[in-house]
Amino acid sequence: IELALAGYPGFHVVAPPGKGSPYGVFADVYVPHSDVDHVAVLDDGRRITVDPPQDTAVLDDVPPPAPPEPLPPGPTVRAPLGRVVGARSGDKGGNANVGVWARTDDAWRWLAHELTVERFRELIPEARELPVTRHALPNLRALNFVVEGILGEGVAAQARFDPQAKALGEWLRSRHADIPEVLL
């Protein structure tokens, strides 16, 4: 299972659930560095304590990058998004990440303007009422969406058909949009 989940996008298990068992619930919280032992383990097994940093920088918000120039208007074809973009998705506790990338610069120009948070919610109905954050990664011609709460308390805590959100990216790629003919 671990190899399959780390492999191709869209993989999910359709076997019936096993017997009930205890599970942990993931919470994304900060842990003071003083609460975690910092240890380097060498190849010979020796353990060396590493003092935590004394000074750390405060993280400032980074302004989003400017979008690329949009494609000029032209004829479109109704087709699945997967004809022009790739995607990979997965769980992060109760949240899901959906990475979407364009294969060409022109496809990126279209994708960056087409796939807004609002459009993502239209295409993924189960995300309509959930907080969704979009991060643009122009040097990768990619967008990353974080869908908060789509997995409840996490993989082990609910019975969603796709409990690790591995198929969410493929579900997005299967959705139809008006794609410029020049990209097809």
Report a brief summary of the structure:
By secondary structure, this protein is α+β, with helices and mostly antiparallel strands. It has one domain.
Structure description:
The chain is of the alpha+beta class. The protein has one domain (1-12, 67-184). The protein contains four helices and eight strands. It has helices at 2-6, 105-114, 117-123, 168-174; strands at 39-41, 47-49, 76-80, 85-92, 95-102, 132-137, 142-147, 176-180. The strands form three sheets. Strands 4-5-7-6 form a four-stranded antiparallel β-sheet. A hairpin with a 2-residue loop joins strand 4 and strand 5 (95-102). The two termini are 35 Å apart. The model has no long low-confidence stretch (mean pLDDT 87).
